[in-house]
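Let's sit down with a protein and look at its sequence and fold side by side. Please make up or recall a protein chain and show it to me in full. Label the sequence line and the structure token line clearly, so we can match residues to local backbone shapes. Go ahead whenever you are ready, and we will take it from there.
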Amino acid sequence: MKEYALIVAGGKGTRINSKLPKQFIELNGKPILLHTIEAFFKYSEKISVVLVLPENDFGIWKSICEKFSFTKPILLQKGGETRFQSVKNGLNKIEGEGLVAIHDGVRPLVSSDLIGASFRLAAVHGSAVAAVRLKESIRVTDQASLPEGSSASRQDNTKAVDRSQYRLIQTPQTFNLQLIKKAYQIKEDPSLTDDASVAEKSGHKISLFEGSYQNIKITTPEDLMVAETLLKLK
């Protein structure tokens, strides 16, 4: 089956304290987004890549391609106001049948093995979503969380939860193309935080497979430091 990668990169860099959108921040001498896209071409030279960016960032991407002599064929698509809209726009760019791996532009450490596993499993089950087990204890609370960065404490009603029943969800989230295109016809709502939740709400069962703790999403300055170290180890 024909394989596609849909890379969504609409971050603003707010939590990473950067004026430059985080997907364009350089990591070991190369923009994060370029690391991500090259990971998919490393998996397969035949893969078709759709890159979804805010229209205002098209010029930045063009300058990156020129600076780093990146000449791989990329289908560029304008993003929407939300991730849901951006993915939907990207899917509309793809015609025909096949499998599509939807991936965060700021997960540059995704491996060829992980990408390959997602396509193999999606070919069988219709979906394949990367996930990892929790390392730390978790509790559920009935109160809204404290503001980010707050050092205050409070006595909410909390309860320990069996972490073995939970998974942290990553990307790639890979699907039969027609399945996920049809799923994205449903009405958008705030509970749809990823592609798996969209597919699930439209009536499909979600198949998980083992992700990787190295497949981090770069969101904070600390993530940048970790990613730099992991890239050097590679």
